């Protein structure tokens, strides 16, 4: 018996008779023939990155992908209350989105900055030193509050000399994007080429939720390839002597320093600072996840 199969072909629909495909003239419908509002609703359920990619399909799809219907969905609900640049053309929701992705804005009386991750629209924040709890930050002998032209914040905290280095920060989970993995970084800059004390001093960090178990790790504030003697303000004192002096003056250091140094040298899970594009440095302190609940 001769077998006839009906199925799909490269031309759309077709009939196969003993392996020979006969086209029946059915062509697939084009996405851009749909009403523009329908196309916008489809793109509405994607991501900012997807919207930018699909805009290259055709003029019709581009118009739908750049519509306010799509980009207002990508914006956070509170965007209208943010201090946007006066020169920004707010008639386009996409322009507002791109502005928030490229240029962070100050919030909370200038104590925080806020921006959007460009490809996903997830909320990002930076807490200024004024929004952190820094031990002895009110003592000029240990910390000074200075103005730095390249900083977005009015004041930054400059460390002078301290034997107890402790900084704490917190943010409400309600401000963050749901279903998102967040990483926490310390952003800093060496105030002087003669600063010292952190190249061989691992810092213990904790990241987590208040009232719950936190994850502890160790970080360094100086990269391992830094000359350990280049920053010391000690004249004629050996590195070993300086290290002993710091250990003696810091009896609160109870962590296994030698073990952390060994982990660092072997390329283990010890974070080191990396230079950012703005000439500041950052080091990862930890991460956490905000669920969908």
TrEMBL record:
Region described as Disordered: spans on this chain: 257-278
Family matches, as CDD domains: F-box_AtSKIP3-like
Domain of life: Eukaryota
Domain F-box, first and last residues per copy: 28-74
Classification via InterPro entries: F-box-like_dom_sf, F-box_dom, PP2-like
PANTHER family in the record: F-BOX DOMAIN-CONTAINING PROTEIN (PTHR32278), GENOME ASSEMBLY, CHROMOSOME: A02 (PTHR32278:SF141)
Name of the molecule in the record: F-box domain-containing protein
Organism, as annotated: Brassica campestris
